[in-house]
Amino acid sequence: QVQLVESGGGLVQPGGSLRLSCTASGSIFSVNVMSWYRQAPGNQRELVATIITGGGTNYADSVKGRFTISRDNAKNTVYLQMNSLKPEDTAVYYCYLASKEGRPPRVYEYWGQGTQVTVSS
User: Fold this and answer.
1) Inter-residue contact 115 to 6 (CB < 8 Å)
2) How far apart are CA 17 and CA 96, in angstroms?
3) Among 99, 95, 103, which residue's Cα sits nearest to residue 29?
4) What are the tens digits of pLDDT across the range 26-64?
């Protein structure tokens, strides 16, 4: 069983920065994908950024150029550096981990509890 623990959320003014962290613990397969999702009230959960073990990344168009996802494989930790924050970024941010193991491969998925990010003057 894998547990994801998020931290770093809070209140920030527009244009400010925030860094989220998510650490995975438990029986973690070394090759996996870690992502950040977010969900604002009344909206569906959306993918913000994702990173694979080797370091390849992908971002939602709305955050490109402002957010950076990174990971420390030795620490099983993923980060989301958020710069130039806008009120539209206000949401609960969730950490996500997915891996494929075994033959035939089986997908395992895990979610963190979420951390609130509020961007407001």
Assistant:
1) yes
2) 22
3) 99
4) 988 777 899 999 999 999 999 999 998 888 999 999 999
